[in-house]
Amino acid sequence: MIKITPVMINGKKSYELFIKVRDKHGRQVARRRRFSSERLAKIESQKILNELEGKKDHYTWEDWYQECSKRVRIEFKESTYLGYKGVLEKWVNPHWNDRLLHEITSADVHELIFGFVDGVSHWHRKNILKYVRRLFSMALEEGLLSRNPALKVKVKVPEVAQKVLAPKEIEVLLKEAKTIGHRYYDIWVLALMTGMRSGELYALRWTSVDLETGFINITTAWTRQDGFGPTKSSRNRVVPISAPCMSFLKELRLRRGNEEFVLPHLSEWSQGAQAQVLKEFCEGLGITAVKFHDLRATFITQLLRNGVALAKVMAIVGHSQLKTTQGYLRLCGQDVKGATDELGIHLPEEEKAENVIELNFGGRN
Length: 365
Hints:
Elements: E1 2-9, E2 12-22, E3 28-35, H1 38-53, H2 61-75, H3 78-91, H4 93-96, H5 106-116, H6 122-141, H7 167-179, H8 185-194, H9 198-203, E4 209-210, E5 215-218, E6 221-223, E7 227-229, E8 237-240, H10 243-256, H11 267-270, H12 274-285, H13 292-305, H14 310-317, H15 322-332
């Protein structure tokens, strides 16, 4: 039995939690505690219940993995669930399935990530640790653990240089693509003009393009695993349409006729090969071999390079954290531009000919 009752203590309202259950030995046990809020009482009730029933003593990693799998499948996209399932079942479960959850230590987590996990990139290793840490965090919230053994384990990932197109390279890409009538020309133009992600561009309908007010409303994205759904952050945003982009969209609207979607759903795009198409075309032109997502990075660096405020860039591209946008600020050098002008180091000037004295080191002319 679990009961939460509001009570007044010295003129202050609090909530009394009363729990009575049978423990793992069949004995009836009870706990009574007070909390400052009903929400806190509900959270703590599950922890106390697990403790009284002795669940923390018999939960194995496999038990908890199965319980978490049900929650992830309900709460997240299918692609998120499949990624979570694939990572844990391949790299973690074979080593921990029969281990009692509360007996797994930080040393065990370290051994798993840096010992058992082999032949993968730093990013993949870090991703495995993220899933492991999340499962322990959920167990902590349920009162099955008193600490998260994965918190102190860290994976250092070397910074990978982000590729972007220089302004002149953008001109070359679009000019050559338009000249030959490349099937991706319209897609590349809109990616560079809006900074939208590939899935957002794929899902963009004309109903979301307001040519009167000059804004594109981004509310939907597409993935091969989940189809059409919310954006990556599940937050809607708007992108202002520049004058060149406005002219392009009006002309594209005429060409597309009664099509529902703004851009054609090319077969390679539907199959996830859009990055390779762009990379190969750039290589053929002799410019930076960027991939599709790098067009978004190019858009961001162009805005920052031209003095658009960080807050505005964040809002346009949908970054939820400032440090994400600041990474692009470092990439384009805008945050340090002009700093070396104050260095104060000057090269010696050339001496004038009449002030040069010819030196003779022992020889005769």
